[in-house]
Design the sequence.
């Protein structure tokens, strides 16, 4: 078997374990293999719950992995990552697994094609897809998605992603509104569906729970990750109505700016019609939430925005 020969072993069980460790390194990018505090005690061995550390020496011996500290400090942690050769082997294995499980992947996508494409687009990172493992609230892929179903999850959703969505530094037209729409709902209403996606991918060896650390190996959080090849195999262009994207953008920047002067600048940047902004403002004024450009009832202001965000989503994808 070609994959086993890459690892220089004929023992199927050991080779499979080594391959899984290889793929974990490919997905994670790097792990903290060893670190010591100033008394010589190891303090960064949490990777052991995700990867077989005994296999690291085997991977290194065949030139597939390397380990080194980032600084000359004697207490600096050692980070292990794949070599170029290791990445090539890992990429081949990942593509093989995608091919082997292609029918299962297509079957999973068919559960809810549009939501899955929203997840893939919204969770995209520089290399693959990822989501922090916390707060598994939201709808599952098989749940009904009427306004009645969506609204409770929207009302309780964390809005931490708003600054990133509204940052012109992070986004470039014309695709910014599509990414913002998908990113926002993937991390709020569809968060539980996102975990379903990663749990499925993990079950076929194409995703992993990754130990995220800082430059000194200190634990930060766990997250799910899947490699770029998985994204490329599963992603189809997301078809979202332009008016839906603009309406979403209008509500988000109103909520983010509180109708301040920054509103017009963001609206122009995103290409959101001024009439759409004004329509939303007039509705809030009629409800007694704002007076002119001043928010007079802050609690109702956010609650109303959440309601509108749920309505926009349902108009696009939900079945009443």
Sequence:
């Amino acid at each position: 078997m070609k994959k086993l020969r890459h690892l220089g072993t004929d023992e199927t069980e050991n080779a499979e374990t080594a391959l899984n460790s290889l793929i974990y390194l490919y997905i994670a990018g790097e792990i903290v293999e060893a670190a010591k505090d100033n008394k010589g005690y190891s303090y960064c061995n949490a990777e052991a719950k995700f990867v077989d550390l005994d296999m690291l020496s085997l991977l290194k011996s065949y030139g597939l992995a390397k380990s080194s500290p980032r600084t000359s400090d004697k207490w600096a942690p050692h980070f292990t990552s794949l070599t170029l050769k290791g990445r090539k082997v890992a990429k081949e294995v990942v593509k093989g697994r995608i091919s082997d499980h292609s029918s299962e992947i297509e079957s999973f996508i068919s559960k809810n094609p549009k939501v899955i494409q929203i997840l893939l687009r919204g969770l995209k990172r520089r290399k693959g897809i990822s989501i922090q493992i916390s707060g598994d609230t939201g709808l599952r892929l098989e749940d009904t998605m009427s306004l009645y179903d969506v609204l409770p999850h929207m009302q309780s959703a964390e809005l931490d992603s708003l600054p990133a969505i509204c940052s012109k530094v992070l986004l470039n037209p014309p695709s910014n509104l599509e990414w913002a729409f998908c990113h926002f709902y993937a991390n709020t209403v569809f968060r539980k569906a996102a975990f379903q996606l990663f749990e499925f991918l993990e079950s076929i060896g194409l995703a992993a729970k990754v130990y995220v650390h800082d430059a000194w190996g200190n634990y930060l959080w766990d997250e799910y990750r899947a490699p770029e090849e998985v994204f490329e195999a599963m992603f189809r262009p997301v078809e979202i109505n332009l008016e839906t994207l603009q309406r979403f953008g209008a509500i988000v920047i109103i909520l983010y700016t509180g109708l301040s002067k920054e509103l017009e600048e963001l609206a122009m940047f995103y290409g959101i019609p001024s009439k759409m902004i004004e329509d939303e403002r007039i509705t809030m004024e009629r409800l007694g939430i704002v007076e002119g450009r001043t928010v007079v009832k802050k609690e109702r202001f956010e609650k109303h925005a959440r309601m509108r965000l749920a309505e926009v989503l349902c108009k696009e994808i939900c079945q009443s």
Summary: The chain is about 50% helix and 10% strand. Strands lie at 31-34, 65-69, 78-82, 124-125, 128-132, 208-213, 219-226, 290-291, 294-295.
